[in-house]
């Protein structure tokens, strides 16, 4: 068997958002490499998948990576998943893939198994773009933040970033400070979950809404900034 890493997208909330191919791949993997094994085990239980798992995250030691690569060297296949969505999109995985490529060369196959990502899910409902956009992942907490907001304001393309509930209001205030008045933004919260909410409006409208509804500043957020002409 050719050593293979299957990069498998998993649900971002609603457990039914998994592809048939993702289930087949997890069922046939020799080893499932996850971020947090407890999170992935819930998914595996839901689909009655009984496979060995190993945790892998951004701070994993090299010995852990070597352990995973040793499995590939035996000609086995691994499925790489993250806690939610698509691995390597603001999630760990790229270092492992690169290291495995370095060690196994052309012998290694890397097969993406596409599925949900908060990025594409949010954008698909935004009405902000049907072609290009700029994705910034998580914004830095301190250094470079102001420069980045200036770049967002200057961007002719819609801009998308991930945000935590703790920093959400702070980011809205920065958008208020740097964006041209009237520019639309979008907030996609708790996508595919029970309290899913998608709000589109100008920055003052969105700030006003979340100030009036402070109980909704919780969960997971994708923030989108429309291009100047929306
Ligand atoms: N790899 C994942 C993906 O493809 O979407 C993203 C992982 S990143 C560590 C987690 C961030 O993605 C969250 O802080 C949030 O900004 C965003 N996110 C993930 N799930 C979400 C959801 N259901 N609704 C809104 N945003 C979500």
- pLDDT < 50 stretches: none
Distance between the termini: 51 Å
Return the domain count. Answer: 2
The tally of beta strands, per DSSP, is: 10
Helix content: 25-40%
Order of helices and strands: EHEHEHEHEHEHEHEEHE
Please name the CATH topology of the largest domain. Answer: Cobalt-precorrin-4 Transmethylase, domain 1
* CATH homologous superfamily title of the largest domain: Tetrapyrrole methylase, N-terminal domain
Total helical segments: 8
Summarize the main sheet.
5 strands, parallel
Oligomer: single chain
Strand arrangement in the largest pleated sheet: 3-2-4-1-5
The amount of beta strand, in percent, is 15-25%
Q: How confident is the prediction overall: mean pLDDT? A: 96
Q: What would you call the shape? A: elongated
The CATH class name of the largest domain reads Alpha Beta
Radius of gyration using CA atoms only: 20 Å
Structural summary, described in words:
With 230 residues, the chain is an alpha/beta fold. The protein has two domains: 4-113, 3-Layer(aba) Sandwich (Cobalt-precorrin-4 Transmethylase, domain 1), CATH 3.40.1010.10; 118-225, 2-Layer Sandwich (Methyltransferase, Cobalt-precorrin-4 Transmethylase, Domain 2). 36% of the residues lie in helices and 21% in strands. The protein has helices spanning 20-28, 37-46, 62-73, 94-104, 118-124, 145-154, 165-178, 203-212, and strands at 4-8, 31-34, 53-55, 77-80, 109-113, 134-138, 159-163, 184-189, 197-202, 221-225. The strands form two sheets. It has a five-stranded parallel sheet, with helices on both faces. Strands 6-7-10-8-9 form a five-stranded mixed sheet. Helix 2 (37-46) links the parallel strand 2 and strand 3. Helix 3 (62-73) packs across helix 4 (94-104) and helix 7 (165-178) packs antiparallel against helix 8. The longest helix has 14 residues, at 165-178. The radius of gyration is 20 Å and the shape is elongated. The site of S-adenosylmethionine has 24 residues, from helix 5, strand 7, strand 8 and strand 10.
């Amino acid at each position: 068997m050719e050593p293979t890493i299957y990069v498998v997208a998993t649900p971002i909330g609603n457990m039914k958002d998994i592809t048939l191919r993702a289930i087949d791949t997890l069922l046939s993997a020799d080893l499932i490499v996850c971020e947090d094994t407890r999170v992935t085990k819930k998914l595996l239980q839901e689909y009655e998948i009984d496979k060995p798992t190993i945790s892998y995250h951004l701070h994993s030691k090299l010995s852990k990576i070597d352990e995973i690569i040793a499995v590939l060297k035996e000609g086995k296949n691994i499925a790489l998943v993250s806690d939610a969505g698509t691995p390597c999109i603001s999630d760990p995985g790229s270092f492992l893939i690169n290291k495995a490529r370095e060690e196994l060369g052309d012998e290694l196959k890397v097969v993406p198994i596409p599925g949900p990502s908060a990025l594409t899910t949010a954008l698909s409902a935004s009405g902000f773009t049907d072609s290009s956009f700029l994705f910034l992942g998580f914004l830095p907490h301190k250094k470079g933040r102001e420069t980045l907001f200036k770049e967002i304001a200057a961007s002719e393309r819609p801009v998308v970033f991930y945000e935590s509930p703790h920093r959400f209001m702070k980011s809205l205030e920065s958008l208020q400070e740097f964006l041209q008045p009237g520019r639309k933004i979008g907030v996609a919260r708790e996508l595919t979950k029970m309290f899913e909410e998608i709000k589109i409006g100008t920055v003052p409208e969105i700030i006003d809404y979340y100030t009036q509804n402070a109980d909704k500043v919780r969960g997971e957020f994708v923030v989108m900034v429309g291009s100047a002409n929306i």
